[in-house]
Amino acid sequence: MPLNEVDLTGIDLTELQAYLTPRLTKYIPFNPTPKQRAFLLMNESKEILYGGSAGGGKSVAQLMAALQFVDIPGYSAILFRKTYADLSLPGALIDMSKQWLMPFVETKEVKWSEKEKQYTFPSGATLNFGYLESENDCYRYQGAE
Q1: What average pLDDT score do residues 15-30 get?
Q2: What is the distance between the alpha carbons of residues 140 and 144, in angstroms, rounded to a whole number?
């Protein structure tokens, strides 16, 4: 039966809408695009391939995904790039995260460690940044939580 012919009650529609709405926190400053929304809804998947041209919003979606659960105690996320420069250049992930999160850092709600490249949220959740330029770089993050 086509979806438009399915009889859905108000409760069913509410549940469906909740299921199709990505979890967003106050740390995500704007609504995701349709492609980003689809990506954010895959939060139970172990691996997701998300491709596209430069400027297509992939890094924005990655940062959004990392910020979805920072209000949950014990949550931690790490965002990787190939080189430190790929993380730290203007417009790259660290710069973007500062644009989004510095208002919360300035009010001391969120802590930023420049040395560790880590945000700590009121829940104790953390967001880190790392790079994997060589095969041995993975050992830098072994056992990191």
Answers
A1: 76
A2: 8
Q: Which of 61, 60, 70, 8 is nearest to 38 (CA)?
A: 61
Residue 26 exposed, middle or buried by CB count within 10 Å (0-12, 13-18, 19+): exposed
Read out DSSP for 64-90? HHHHTTTTSTT-EEEEEESSHHHHHST
Q: 40 is written with which tokens?
A: 């954010």
| Domain hosting residue 43, numbered range | 3-141
Total of domains in the chain: 1
Which residue reads 């014990």 in tokens?
74
**CA nearest 37: which of 19, 10, 54, 52?**
19
Q: Are 71 and 65 in contact (CB under 8 A)?
A: no
Residue 16 confidence (pLDDT) above 70: no
How is residue 18 written in tokens?
């909740």
pLDDT tens per residue across span 51-65: 665 656 778 888 998
Q: Report the alpha-carbon distance of residue 71 to residue 26 in Å, rounded.
A: 10
Tokens describing residue 104: 């919360």
Q: What is the pLDDT of residue 112?
A: 97
pLDDT exceeds 80 at position 95: yes
